[in-house]
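yo

u said u wanted the structure for the complex thing, so here. seqs first:
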Amino acid sequence: MVNRSIVSIADYSHEKIQYLLDMAQEMEAHSNRKILEGKVVATLFFEPSTRTRLSFETAANRLGARVIGFADPKATSSTKGETLKDTIKMVSNYADVIVMRHRLEGAAKYASEVTDTPIINAGDGANLHPSQTMLDLYSIYKTQGRLNNLNIYMVGDLKYGRTVHSLLMALSTYNPTFHFIAPKELEMPNEYKMYCKKRGVNYIEQRDFTAETIADADIIYMTRVQRERFTDLMEYERVKDAYILRKAMLEGCRANMKILHPLPRVNEIERSIDDSPHAYYFEQAGNGLFAREALICHVLGITLDDLKNDKTIIN
Amino acid sequence: MEKRKDLLVAALENGTVIDHIPTEKLFTVANLLKLDTFHEPVLIGNNLNSNKIGKKGMIKIANRMLSDDEISRLAVVCPNIRLCIIRDYEVVEKKEVTLPDTLENVVRCANPVCISNNEPMRSFFYVTDKLHGMMRCHYCNKEQKIENAEFYQLFNVKP
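structre next:
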């Protein structure tokens, strides 16, 4: 049997990405179905994450599946010293698909090697978070009508931001122009700049975040600058307000420009922007549902055609 | 009479000669091959003159051929050593040790939060750059320098 697990989407072809986007679009058209009736989805959150877990569980529920799992590993055998392998082997007997989040990097990859039950990686430490990347790609595709030849601006914490790293890798083959706007302490790590260089991807690094620097943006991907990331708190005080997107900065921007943010937001996007046609972060989170519905169906062997000819749609 | 400047180290009838070992790596290599518990004759020399690398270490091991696994481990510590296989006092084969394309269960991932350091499981790396000695962890994807890597069996953590 082919293992259909989704651990990473970094090496997916354009065709495969497009296929998953088409599936997500189909899900958006009809997000309530009974196509997974009789299936059991396990959500194993060895590390708490309310947002991602709720999104996956909603996806499973809206497709008619039942959900088992845990949100806090303190209540499980991992605290008794059970290995990840044993937990996965055990749950594999009960569930048709396992959605897992773990604090250790590579945990989902390893899990997919010890069981035939498909695994969906819902985040493994600072490493990968493919369902977030998928919903980011879907949001970009939906708002811009394409993924190629876009000006993508990444702003804020580019050093620790897992979502920006995954997005960078996923978009790298679509001829993007990246702009990295971050304070020195949180700038894009060298390995990702090398990644771009090796693949001939254009990128520009900037410290200034002003109306002029963002005038050509198609997408502005905002992230939170967190105090605890700084070794030098003086530096934090100096830059903390420099990476806030303010309403006045949007005046000269492109009409098609959309603002994305993986959420939670603190103050890095002025609240007055929420009503602007450029604000897209709440819809983006909503797209997470469709992207995750598509991923769950895909790993269970359900095809785009199955979705299009689905007789179980509830409206 | 001209004095012999050759090494006066006994010739091997059968076995393996590991030559051109960087002097600081000699004992690492000896440990790696578990020579402390090997019961056949072993000769270890260090700080010997070498035309190639200045000073070198050399190890002669009687009646032992190295396995492919041992050779990969050697390649990780010192990528440029040479192996001579001896049969009946003759060198029957010379091998330049080179890094393999993958390393399984040889070294530990440098990333403390990699799953491979936290579960009883194998480690697995792709050698991404043989020239600069770089590898990437199959699990956590971290790119790392091979020469900084820590071996498993020196600490007997792995079965």
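Confidence is low (pLDDT under 50) at residues 154-159 of chain B. Residues 72 and 140 of chain B are 22 Å apart (CA to CA).
cya
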